[in-house]
């Protein structure tokens, strides 16, 4: 069922971080596409790749990014060159379930774009151009000001909107402020994922940005159930760990918590290098398996924003742990739903996951936010 829109379905081209090598990016893109379709738009996902996301560059990205942080041996001179082949295999294994999902579930543009210049020279055709969710406006994450996420490729005079865009940090660098201001002045409607982002935009003269919830929270449990793949589910109750950042204290906390509640630990991992002693590791499950593992977990322990979002949305008992940087996104979400007590600030606290969650209140907040977000999108599309 769709909301009130024009008789002819508008076409929307969405640019977002759909090909970042993690489950959250895949699923927020799927949710964005679903939400826009439900309000009557024909949506396409611009198949744009940042330089480090181009398939042939992903091994280098892994060697210099999170994988390097998780495996300090890469800091030894000469080790990187020796590790290139095995790391390329890790990257390929990690990419497969995500690529399978993108190809089968996302309405990707026929053309792949491997540079901003390629986008600007031959942009996809649409009635509306949209910056999507995730940390699209985080210059740290994007290693600079990425014009593609500010719709530089949209034809002159085309409608530009932003849906749940995230800056992902608490302050802006002086150099990026005028670039952002000039680019965003061309947008007719802007919504952002955090209140903090709206305040940052207001501080640089971009007024009226509307805070909305992450697209994954726009879909309820029944909506997510259609993706389920229960083939990866353990037998019996379990603790699910979804950890994106190396953290020894996190690992120790999981072990102490497991001992306290007497349940096995199952860890979603992006490679065998993430295996931990005393845990079961599920390496690169299909995206539907990722959803099923969250749906069925007795407890979730995570340092991921989307891990926290799924835990809350699916009614799981959970512990949210700071990822170190960009943690404001998680606190924003917990504050909005009144569940900040599930944010761990003391490694000795093993009772946090069993703190009561007012599921009725969380559901009411999310439903109100869903209604507000739909109203924003209908207005943005039709005005």
Describe what you observe in this structure.
By secondary structure, this protein is an alpha/beta fold. The protein contains 13 helices and twelve strands. The protein has a seven-stranded parallel sheet, with helices on both faces. A five-stranded parallel sheet has the order 10-9-8-11-12, sandwiched between helices. Helix 11 (305-313) links the parallel strand 11 (299-302) and strand 12. The chain is globular and about 60 Å long. The two termini are 21 Å apart.
**What does the overall shape look like?**
globular
- The Cα radius of gyration reads 21 Å
CATH topology of the largest domain: Rossmann fold
Assess the beta-strand content as a share of residues. 5-15%
Helix content: 25-40%
How many separate domains? 2
Please give the number of β-strands: 12
What is the count of DSSP helices, taking H or I runs of 4+ residues? 13
Domain Polysaccharide pyruvyl transferase: 22-323
Protein name: Polysaccharide pyruvyl transferase domain-containing protein
Organism: Bifidobacterium longum
How are the SSEs placed, and which strands pair?
Blueprint (H helix, E strand, L loop, with lengths): L10 E5 L7 H16 L3 E7 L9 H7 L1 H5 L8 H27 L2 E6 L2 H6 L6 E4 L27 E7 L10 H9 L4 E4 L2 H9 L6 E2 L9 H5 L13 E4 L5 H14 L3 E5 L10 E4 L3 H10 L2 E4 L2 H9 L3 E4 L7 H10 L21 H24 L1
Parallel strand pairs: 1-2, 1-4, 2-3, 4-5, 5-6, 6-7, 8-9, 8-11, 9-10, 11-12
Helix pairs in contact: 2-4
Notable characteristics:
13 helices, Rossmann fold, 7-stranded parallel beta sheet, 383 residues, alpha/beta, 5-stranded parallel beta sheet
